[in-house]
Design goal:
By secondary structure, the protein is α+β, with helices and mostly antiparallel strands. Helices cover 29% and strands 20% of the residues. The chain contains 18 helices and 23 strands. The strands form six sheets. Strands 1-2-3-6-5-4 form a six-stranded antiparallel barrel. Strands 7-8-9-12-11-10 form a six-stranded antiparallel barrel. A hairpin with an 8-residue loop joins strand 14 and strand 15. Helix 8 (357-369) packs parallel to helix 10 (398-428). The longest helix has 31 residues, at 398-428.
Length: 732
Amino acid sequence: MTDGRTTGTARAFELLEPLVQAATVRVHAPPGGYDTPGSHRTGPTWGSGFFIAPGWVLTCAHVVGEGGAAVRLTGREVGITFHSGRPRYGGPGAPGAVTGTVTGRVECVLPERLEERRPGRHALWDLPDLALIRVLAPVSHACVWLTDRSRPRFDEVAYFGCTEDLGTPEITGRTTRLRGTAGNGAAIRLADDDEIDPGMSGGPVVDLARGEVVGVVKARRHTGGGGLAVSVVQLRTLPMPARGQVGLYRRIMQAHDLHHYDQHLSDLDNRRTWTDVHGELPPQERDPYGGRGRLTPGERTTLCGLLAELPPPSSSEAVRALVEAVRGEEPDPQPPAPLSWRDGLGLLHDPPGGTGEAAAMLRYATDVSVAEYREPPTPGADEELWDWVRATAERLWRPLRRELGERHERGLAERERRRRASAGRAAGGPARRAGGLPPGASVLLEVWAHGWEHLYDWRVSVLAGLAHPGRLTPVDSGVRATVAALPERLRAPLAEAFRRCDTHVAAALLEVAVAPELFGLAVEDWVVAGGVPLGVQRPVVLRHPGGRGAAPGPGIGQGGQGIDPGGPDAPAGGPQAHPADHEAGRAAARWARVQAGPLQDERADCAGGRPRAPSAEWLSGLPDTTVPVHCRAADQEPTLGSLHAVRDAGYGVAVTRRPPPDPGVSCAPFHRGLREELADAGRAEVLPVRLQTLRGRAYGADPDAYWAAGAGLVWEDPARPLPDVEPLHGDL
């Protein structure tokens, strides 16, 4: 312990130290036969780690990369030396605490690009610099309690790890204070009260006021004390699962909560649990509730356990919607997105309006008990949660008990109404026919040219579904990026947005809103996660920017051949009204008809392989089920003008293409293949998903799909309006 700590901090450290030490491990080379309990012949220490759930160890990626710059991290085997069992209060050396070594395998590292590119020796690894290790044998061990808060509180903490101060490896702890964040909240700064020794990297950082692990020790300062830790909330950035599967993050957090729930309920021994110690921690200073109005530690552990016994939520947006209903305002939009029911609890600490935490969490739990799950719950699991809520409310006040009962009845009625409506659709035909887009939230990527420079500003947002048309939740933004730099700059923001929108049954739509001259941006070829291009993983469509899609005047595009809205084809009354305003009704009619089909293609910017500029009269006279097709470069005339003219004529569905590098390649195979695809599709509502399938076939080396390379789908859904907002303004 360092000098100057409060009595409360000293007492908290005294209570928490045995629990944390029991769950902290030493990471080293695989045992290679030296796995006898008590053996220290395991080679030098690479770093530390800690058990977060039965069989799962969390550490830093650079720890498991020790001495292996040329080897693949994921799948690498490492050695884990730990204390078997939960020791009594006397530390890891107390009776019943046995030191053992087991082999573990690296399940994944964050960020995934560390497999492709790693920093040089003594350089900081990219954030979040985490690795998850799966233990390859069933062993008895302790687990830490992880925070559910999205943001750390800047209070006194303790950090733990493996040191060799006395000549042999041992787990030690020291105290310090959090003094800020870094890396857009991915890392937290540790004050320089004490020095972080080599070997402590990967160890846990514990909030002493609340008794929860908030970080993973990452690095120390070159000048001495202090350093960086990674927020454990970055675990939410673990790779998303395949459709229909439960993701690794949700599996681990479920195991974490059930472990502590089982320990809390067990009466097999009298050893203190994390829940017991939470109840013994000194009261927090400046607590507006003075401990009242909060769930007790036992209630919190029980609630987390009951939530863990339910199927996971269908999406991150489902969690956020329930939190918003309780808080009365949008929850913190900062990443990472909440992925489990437990994460929703973390957004309800210190709710607005003076409402107590306990009341907010009980309202949330009531809503979860009647929510739609991704799969049917274990019989009675939702009723058990509601029974607990009702019983826990007994210790609060009568109006809340009555409110929760009414809330539960309304939720049951609404769930039953949804089920009847779903059954009716199944009998009379689905509301959204097979092969269409998911109806929920989508990811919106906006890119703007930065003046006349070859630089671009960008913004990533979540565009709400039909329940909140036009509602936009920003995720991240940036300025002055080159085209070549955009994929790397946008990798993390897009991954976060996808985590918020993807469901267990469908990958969310990516809508790319750019000026038509940027329709050739190869977004569908970018790789965000999993080593697979975006266009293979999910539907990707193009949008004209919201409120910025006016047709170009003279001088826009090469040779100034754009369509002039004030020209002879303009409606009576002059150029004061955009032609699209007068075509709003026609556009809605075209959209409805083309969605139902049957489809027919029409070459808009070429005739027999030669460029042509379509006239407004010609476009207006085509059947409403026409899909205009462009095969030439979007930033060149006549295609640029044609894209504007097609939009002004009310066509919400159109096709564009990045031409192949060889200008001598004929466009005939593209038009032939697209015509067959449109005829087979029959209706436009399935085109985004069918184009995704085509990209997947081409990615899988199917020669019959090569013609679709570079194809893009313009998709102006009137039910999903883009907000009329101004672009970012970069540095002047």
